[in-house]
Amino acid sequence: VPAGTTAHHNFMALYGLGPGGACLIRPDGHIAAHFETAPASRVTALTEALTATAMLRERLVVQLSHLGDRDALGALTTRYADAINRGYDGKTIEPELFSQIFSHDATYTMPGEEPYVGLEAVVSALPAATAAVPFAMHTFVNPILDIGKTTATARWLMWLVARPTDAGLRTGYVQTSFSYIRTSAGWRIRSVVVHP
């Protein structure tokens, strides 16, 4: 804004700037730095303002990435619950879903049983484990996530509604531990441990 003009005067008043004052405004309209009067060193002030803005951007990128990972891990775990929920009462779990959910080296451990190791073992074990139950629905709540660059772990409460025999419905919470791995196709479940 050219000095001495009405627009310049209005700008200075609007931003609370005195003689030699300046405002650094980001392209998104956010004020990155505000100097009511001329700083002792304009170069130092501008360098510090630009550095602070760049550091803020880096923190925001990390936070957004973390939120994206949390969302992706939650969606993956929900897809797993949906896949399991398709298998009760003699229905068939769709095994092709598991290659989009589990890693090739996945392990699955249920109380009192030896772990199933490898995607093929998991795919063959889960349909048999769920088909014998007349009714069962699973959902996972209250995750405690620890997310790294390529791996993550979580403790979820699995809420289960089931009719294990011809008796009435039963409900319960079971702690379940998951580990995840980031692949070229996105996050995959690497292990599930259902705790007694």
What tags apply to this protein structure?
single chain, 196 residues, alpha+beta, 6-stranded mixed sheet, two-stranded antiparallel ribbon, 3 helices, 8 strands, elongated
Instruction: Please outline the major beta sheet.
Output: 6 strands, mixed
Helix fraction, binned, reads 25-40%
Q: Supply Rg.
A: 28 Å
Low-confidence stretches: none
> What's the count of strands?
8
SS content category: alpha+beta
Q: Cα distance, first to last residue?
A: 71 Å
What is the chain-wise order of helices and strands? HEEHEEHEEEE
Oligomer: single chain
Strand order of the largest sheet: 4-3-8-7-6-5
The outline comes out as: elongated
Q: What is the strand content?
A: 25-35%
Counted by DSSP, the helix tally is 3
- Average pLDDT reading: 87
Structure description:
By secondary structure, the protein is of the alpha+beta class. It has three helices and eight strands, in the order αββαββαββββ. It has a six-stranded mixed sheet, with helices on one face. It is elongated. The N and C termini lie far apart (71 Å). The mean pLDDT is 87.
Note the topology.
Layout: H1 6-14, E1 22-25, E2 31-35, H2 42-85, E3 102-109, E4 116-117, H3 119-131, E5 135-147, E6 151-163, E7 170-183, E8 186-194
Describe this structure in a few short sentences.
With 196 residues, the chain is of the alpha+beta class. The protein is 34% helix and 35% strand.
